[in-house]
Amino acid sequence: xxxxxxxxxLLLKYWNLFIDAGVEMVNQAEPLSSGDVISAKLxxxxxxxxxxxxxxxxxxxxxxxxxxxxxxxxKILDLIAESETNLFSMDYKVDLNxxxxxxxxxxxxxxxxxxxxxxxxxTTAEIEAESLACIRAGGTPGFxxxxxxxxxxxxxxxxxxxxxxxxxHFDVNEII
Length: 176
Prior knowledge:
The chain is an alpha/beta fold. Helix content is 49%, strand content 15%. The protein has seven helices and five strands; from the N terminus they run αβαβαβαβααβα. Strands 1-2-3-4-5 form a five-stranded parallel beta sheet. Helix 1 runs parallel beside helix 2 and helix 6 crosses helix 7. The longest helix is centred in the first third of the chain and has 20 residues. The radius of gyration is 17 Å and the shape is globular.
């Protein structure tokens, strides 16, 4: 518990440096809160109170807060809706239909192209098709197409541009 309190204080000091510099959004990354690493029970008892407290502290200085948790977070989506984040960035392992049912209208949510098999290794046609599949499953409003975790360093710029172009040019009437 002492380590978690120390880490929380350290991160708040770190985020405040960015806020002082004028950023418009602070991102909280919680890779060890992943459902692939800890149980939903441990998340609720240990991580969730810290995530929520950090969001409350950040909100005193900046309006927009995002949260990314790696891995399969399906079992904690109900808590994410209560975390006081503005945007939940999820890994490609989360079923977007379940995320939409749980988060829609409560918090914006994003994902979730597989950063390796789609963004790094996929063709532009595959990236476009997977991007559209995510947009359709994620629904609107409140869904943001983003990579389902980090972008691999060797990902071609063209691949990222294909994802962005697809997100900006899909026909919204297709999913409403």
